[in-house]
């Protein structure tokens, strides 16, 4: 086991832009590496990424393993997995961290399975335990407890939620070594292409989220929320029952089993505020709750609460937002 050394962060990119979760993981990775006196590296797969690689150094990577091939420009599950497994077998990092994005959730478990190692999914915290083991912390039992998980195999693998770790301040004076890797492509007949930004929705990045719950009476009524979101330059989200009823796609779901969001402004419209929903939005800067029931738990986390019928309140908010824009 002690042939494994260092901490590696998978750098996720789309159209040549690195996903900010990778910088957050480098921030946490640097903190862990400093405690253990080890190196932080990153691995990037893409094509003609150019200067964007340097961003990984600016945010803490000391070394970047770079696979540059046109076949890797877009996420390609089999080619990404194949080359990452080759790299891990060669470099033997003790820890490999992956963002718990759609892409990371698809890729991470497949790498772990290929390496016959354990993976803790959807971590919200990481600590260094006895003998330098990585303690992987994640909500369990619907968020009622936080499980502390230690991996006995190597590498220790975790996917980590976006927006729960802090990135380091960007520092252009940080530099590092780029190690260019040879890419091996798998049989094209086996190729599976997985598009991650389904429907173009990226709710985790939105600065304004207008989230609808079961207080909305029909799928068509989400148009009311769309109008408010558009007036504020935001995105529509929803609770899980809305996804279960197939009124909206999973990429819109906020909460424990959906997306974590941290917008500047979050509207909870006809949302009761279950623990599973709060797990995905409670860190929003400003929370506005609109609910007909004054005892709804959402009001406990809301900065502004409007007790009323959403069908009356939302159009008024939209009209005011349109008037001011
Ligand atoms: C393992 C697990 C994971 C889960 N993951 C998630 C998750 O990721 N995200 C998630 O959201 N849930 C999740 N859930 C489900 C969660 O427990 C709740 O069931 C869900 O969040 C409730 O959704 P809601 O607030 O839309 O509905 P309800 O709880 O039914 O609330 C509807 C609210 O609308 C209000 N209302 C009704 N009519 C009006 C009106 N005209 N005007 C104003 N207000 C009105 C009501 O007063 C009520 O408070 C999960 C559950 C489990 C067990």
Q: In the residues, how many domains can be counted?
A: 2
Radius of gyration over C-alpha positions, nearest whole angstrom: 21 Å
Helical content band: 25-40%
| End-to-end gap | 60 Å
In the CATH hierarchy, the architecture of the largest domain is 3-Layer(aba) Sandwich
Question: What report would you give on this structure?
Answer:
It is a single chain. The protein is α/β, with parallel strands linked by helices and 325 residues long. It folds into 2 domains: 7-190, HUPs (Rossmann fold), CATH 3.40.50.620; 198-324, Rossmann fold. It has 9 helices and 17 strands. It has a 7-stranded parallel sheet with strand order 7-11-6-1-4-5-12, with helices on both faces. The longest helix has 17 residues, at 20-36. It is elongated. The N and C termini lie far apart (60 Å). Residues 189-199 have low confidence and may be disordered. Bound molecules: flavin-adenine dinucleotide.
